[in-house]
Amino acid sequence: MVKETPAGDGPTSDVGAGRLGQTIKRTEQALINRKSRVLKEFGLTVPQYAVLLVLSASEGMSAAQLARECMVTPQTMATVLTNLHRSGHIERSPSSLHQKITVNRISESGRALLTRADQAALAVEGALSAEFSASELQAFESYLERAVATLTAGD
Asked: How far apart are alpha carbons 110 and 87 in whole angstroms?
């Protein structure tokens, strides 16, 4: 017999109850969904925004470096870079160190776009931060950093 659930509850809604990983994943998805909505106004996806943000702080990076830094697959990064290059937001040139590597750099138009889009993304994060007192936010960030350290220990 299938248990019926109220509208909005899926058949697995109780499966994640009490599971920290599930709560973290739901939080991450909610943040990405909100950022996706605000970045859409600038014609950017969250991965494109992440690439522009990372490139804005670097002298140039390969697709493999960007994929690792932005936490996407190499295949996804290839698509992201193609679209950013096509729209003129990044420049691509051969590496001076290795002939098979292409170095990606943010262009002036990419930097200008990032400046505007980053304000919208920061507003999303600001609204989230505003839900916590200063001491709660400090503790929350500390807990998350401890979680990262625990999960990456031995990597």
From this structure: 9
Q: Where are the alpha helices (DSSP H) in 41-91?
A: 46-56, 63-70, 74-86
pLDDT category, 12, cuts 50, 70, 90? low
pLDDT digits (tens, 9 = 90+) for 100-140: 889 999 999 999 999 999 999 999 999 999 999 999 999 99
* b (16+ CB within 10 A) / e for 121-146: beebeeeeeeeeeeeeeeeeeeeeee
Least confident of 13-17, 21-25, 141-145: 13-17
Residue appearing with tokens 């909610």? 30
- Show me where the domains of the chain are located: 20-126
**Other beta carbons within 10 Å of 27:** 12
| CA distance linking residue 1 with residue 6, whole number of Å | 16
CATH class label, 20-126: mainly alpha
